[in-house]
Amino acid sequence: MTETAAHPRPADQRDGVDDEASTEHPGLQPFLAAETVVLRAPAQAWSSDDGTMGRAAVHGFYLGDVRLVDELTLTVDGRVPETVATVAVDASTLRVESLLRGVDDRGADPGVRLSVLRSVDVGGMRDRLTVTSRLDRELTLTVALALRPDAAPLELVKAGLPGGRPDDVTVAGDGARASWTSDGVAVSLDAAGVDGGAGGAVQHDGTRLVATWRLVVPPRASASVALALTASRPSPVVAGVAGPLAWAAPDPAPRDDRLARWLDRAHDDLAALRLTTADEPGDVFYAAGAPWFFTLFGRDSIWAARFTLPLDRTVAAGTLRALARLQGTASVPDTAEQPGKVMHELRQQTLTIPGEGVSLPPLYYGTVDATPLWVCLLHDAWRWGLPDAEVEALLPAAEAALAWMRDSGDSDGDGLLEYVDETGHGLANQGWKDSGDSVQWRDGRLAEGPIALCEVQAYAYEAATHGADLLDHFGREGGAAWRAWAARLRDRFRDSFWVSDAAGAYPAIALDAAKRPVDTVTSNLGHLLGTGLLDEHEEALVAARLVSPELAAGFGLRTLSSDAAGFWPLSYHGGSVWTHDTAVAVSGLARAGFVDEARSLAEGLLAAAPSFDHRMPELHSGDDRGEVPSPVPYPASCRPQAWSAAAAVAVWAATHDVAPPR
Question: Are both 195 and 290 inside the same structural domain?
Answer without folding.
Answer: no
